[in-house]
Amino acid sequence: MLQKKDISKAAKLLAKNLIGKSTGPDEFTLVRKDGSEVIAEISTHPVKVGRITYVLGVASDITELKKTQENLRIAKIEADNSALKAIESDRSKSQFLANMSHEIRTPMNAILGFSELLKENLKDPSYIRYVDIILSSGKTLLELINDILDLSKIEADKLEIKLGPVNPKELFNDIAKIFSSKIESKGLEFVTKIDESLPSSILIDEVRVRQVLFNLVGNAVKFTSDGFIELAVGGRFYNDRSKIDLIFTVKDTGIGISKQDLEIIFDAFRQSAAHDTKKYGGTGLGLTITKRLVELMGGSIDVDSTKGKGSIFKVLIKNVAIATVESGYGLDSDSILNVKFKNQKALLADDVESNRLLLHKILCLY
After folding, report:
1. Which residues does 34 contact at the CB level (< 8 Å), separation at least 6?
2. pTM to 2 decimal places
3. Minimal CA–CA distance to 230: which of 293, 169, 314?
């Protein structure tokens, strides 16, 4: 028996059959004698025999199919809501960490700073060794904190790219100097190729480009025990020579990356299966942050690697403006270290007492 709401619908379809038109498939809710309902899909076709028109109806029970479809619809809504909640939760966590960056870093700076001061005043070799372990562990922990906070800032859209005039040749030479001693201590050859045609000043975020280079060259040093590491820098000028595409590559002859691992190395908290975490350390965040920073600067990063034969990371930053103002370089690090203040008063302004005490002790040493 048809439900009342379907009787008028059935009458309209029957009228179509009487004028020779087929109908359906259409859904109807049928009521059994016991009162239970069945959802049926019915098609009707007019069959004319002589002057009499008969109606042939074909019905299929789709009750279970409709239940399954409804369950899937509800499950999809619940899954979508759960996904939205998870995204919002992750964003809230990232925003919290980004906002707490100062509070999280401050205690570590105090631990490392006072450990350095303590080490300078110790004579007992055993105590010096203990402090060295504190410093080493503290620096490792600070690197981890910095990586997590940087990733949180990026995910919370709180990391801004700040452009300023920078001399690219001096910037890349600085990176080479920083890693040269460590590379030499491992018995590796360090090759630098810096294009002399690069302009003397370009508009980039020096801090973030340094961070990208630190991660890439640092990884090359970490995973290379024989052979060489090469840092190459160049660029492609635009026709009007007002902009340049900045290109730099970091090449090494290290342990390399397998094809399957190439797909995950830029994912957060994931590392190549070939990397012994105990031997090499790391969190799996370095390349994730590097990729995000490069993309924030309007660039891209690619890697070509063969397991056991080394890797080549290539970074392309497009539309880099050539600055008309020279960069702020001038004093090198040695000159800064030789600056002396005699009989001068200094005002230390910091809202953290441990920071003020640490700065006071450091200044008193000089």
Report:
1. none
2. 0.60
3. 314
